[in-house]
Amino acid sequence: MLALGKESNFNYKDALSEAMTELASDERTIFLGQGVRYKGTFMSTTLDNVPMEKRIELPVAEEMQLGMSIGMALDGMVPISIFPRWNFLILATNQLVNHLDKMQSHVIVRVGVGSTKPLDPGPQHKGDMTEAFRLLMPNTLIVRLENSEDIIPEYQKALYRNGPTVLVEIADLYAS
Fold first, then answer.
1. For 134-176, where are the E strands, in sequence order?
2. Contact between 142 and 1 (Cβ < 8 Å)
3. Residue 68 per-residue DSSP state
4. pTM, entire model
5. Cα 135 to Cα 149: distance, rounded to the nearest angstrom
6. CB 159, CB 107: distance < 8 Å
7. Which sign, positive or negative, has the C-alpha torsion 142, 46, 4, 22?
8. For the domain with range 6-173, which CATH number is right: 3.40.50.970, 3.90.1170.50, 3.40.50.300, 3.30.70.3090?
9. Which of these, 36, 75, 138, 166, could form a disulfide with 55 (CB 3.0-4.6 Å)?
């Protein structure tokens, strides 16, 4: 992993790309979700240096995706489960609240707050449920990534933490 302090030269997207590259170097990690093997979301662009054999593309089936992630964690893997929008992740609330938070499985969830620029996608694509899920999941670390210098240290912490972490990325910051 990168030494803390060196990440300040990265912009937001570059810091995320570097964090994903570093996570991929750990033999336990696997990346799964929509837009993991194929382009299509703002998060897809951060996986360019992640080997294809570490990526599992899934259909739009959010509860199944998080259930698979929990199962992989129980088998000793560290899944990075990618949900491009909070509005999509709420479909996996059962798995988040009743299983992940209570079982303390080592899953890293990447979730995004959708962009509002250059076009507002409407309320179903730009919600930020961070505070609500902090109340629902008291045993899970939920971090909103508002600064590029926080990205690499927070992903490092998530990789070595014993328990689940939800890292909230802000799509509008990808251009900064």
1. 141-145, 165-170
2. no
3. H
4. 0.92
5. 26
6. no
7. positive
8. 3.40.50.970
9. 36
Question: In the predicted model, is pLDDT for residue 75 greater than 50?
Answer: yes
Rounded average pLDDT over 89-99:
96
CA 71 to chain centre: 17
Distance, in Å, from the CA atom of 63 to the CA atom of 134, rounded to the nearest integer, reads: 19
Tokens of 17: 């790309």
pLDDT tens sequence across 97-153: 999 999 999 999 999 997 777 777 677 777 899 999 999 999 999 999 999 999 999
Q: Report which residue type is found at 36.
A: V
Strand partners for 154: none
pLDDT given at position 1: 46
Place of tokens 């490092």: 156
Tokens of 107: 């899953």
